Input
Amino acid sequence: MVAEFTPPTIAQAAFQGLCPRCGQPHLFAGPLLSTHLATFAERCSACGLDFTRFNVGDGPAAFLTLILGTVITIAAIIVELTLHPPLWLHMLIWLPLTAVGVVYSLRIAKGALMAAEYRNEAREGAVVAPPDDQDA
Output
C-alpha cells in the first residue's frame, strides 16, 4: 500500500527550504552558511518546478527590518534599564544581532511567500475586462 503524497505546508517549505511542489530541499541556491543564503534556485532539481516564474521580490525585507528592529529596540531598552551596560557593549550586542536576524529571517520569509504563491496559484496582477452583462 502506497501512502498518498502531500505537499509541504507553507511553514515547512519556509523553515526547511522545501520545494512547494515535491517537498525536496531544493528551494534555495545555497545552504544556510553561504553567500546565496536567500537566493532562490532557478528550478527544483527534483521535480523541475521553475522558481523564476514566482515574484517574491524584496517585500519581506522591509517588514522584517521593522519587526526585528522593534523587538531588538525593546530588548535593548530592557537591558539598558536593568543592567546599565556601556554604549560600546550595546553596539557589540545589538548591531550584529539585528543584521544576522534580518538576513536569516529573510530566507524564511521569502520561502513562505514562494510557497504561498505556489499554493494559491498567484501570478502577476493583470487588468481583466468585466464580463458582459447581457441578462439585464
